[in-house]
Amino acid sequence: MNLKSITIALAVALVCGFSYAQTSTEGVKEDFKPSPLNQPGQEYPQVNSQGYARFRIKAPQADSIRVSLGLGGQGGTRLSKGSDGFFTGTTSGPMDEGFHYYHLTIDGGVFNDPGALNFFGSLRWESGIEIPARDQDFYALKDVPHGNVQQVLFPSKSTNMQRRAFVYTPPGYGKSTKKYPVLYLQHGWGEDETAWSNQGRANLIMDNLIAEGRTKPFIIVMTYGMTNDTRWGGIRDFKIDAFQTVLTEELIPYIDANFQTIANRNNRAMAGLSMGGMETHSITLNKPDIFGYYALLSGGTFNPDELKDKVKPHLIFLSCGSKERPDGVKKAVSSLKEAGYNAVSYVSENTAHEFLTWRRSLKELAPLLFRQN
């Protein structure tokens, strides 16, 4: 998938997320429960066993409220005003399982839902709602040994500022002199370095996989990919140079100097979702001597011609949701295998350009990393 195709796919995902629909409750089960992502003590928003979402907002002075749900969800739910000053409404259809951003439009102004927790996406802090997934156990908070997610500030001469990263270290890290491989994991457009641990549950996915003995323990580094310096509509003009310098010449040396890493290509991977996948594609092709494992999660594909005459990666992992472009991912992996590359495809069933796709992708990717070591 080329840059133009990635841009079109992202645009379709965004447009689909904000289409308008009328609310209908016919055939909707009345077994609604508070969303897992509500503020403490808040009853709304609620979700039911079918995946419908119900919203209730107190705004006695308002005339109209619409709920706009983000990537992959049912959008444009109009709420009805009651005599008590509360606006209430239910999505017109079941939403995809997993996490979704949303916001309220109240008399033309954009606001967050006071009942929900906030997450950084679409260039702003948005409300979040979680539709429980049938396979949610793999990212659930369990009674297992837990790693640690810490914030680090690292100097960046190229941008003349201190930059931030979040670093996941696995259970047991620091209790011995053991060193670990590292995955550099990138967010998508409109998001930042908080996305993978907050929306993506990356630390809980790793904790659970490690506890089950399904993956080697490794460090994950998540930093801002400078994606939001480009506004929507201009993604095709995004230049990788500035972020590539920050990542490869400043962040990686900082991590290797301050954490117990195995500082070589064979123990270093890069992955990214959506636009972060686009960044991963460019940087791994430009710097194949730095990364030994590549993963694009709803972020395009590789082809044998662009990899020709470069040091061969140990693994190329390509994934997407079944509601995206799975045939393109499967075809790309088939071509890579025919050319002699260790390539793996994964398609998340019944999901689109959304975090359940990427949570599942990380679950499938992690056990494949650093096997050659």
From TrEMBL:
Keywords for the protein's UniProt record, in alphabetical order = Signal
A GO term, aspect molecular function: acyltransferase activity, transferring groups other than amino-acyl groups
Q: Where is the secretion signal located?
A: 1-21
- Classification via InterPro entries: AB_hydrolase_fold, Esterase-like, Ig-like_fold, Ig_E-set, Mycobacterial_A85_antigen
- Return the Pfam families for the record: Esterase
* CDD domains for this protein: E_set_Esterase_N
Any idea what this protein is called?
Answer: Esterase
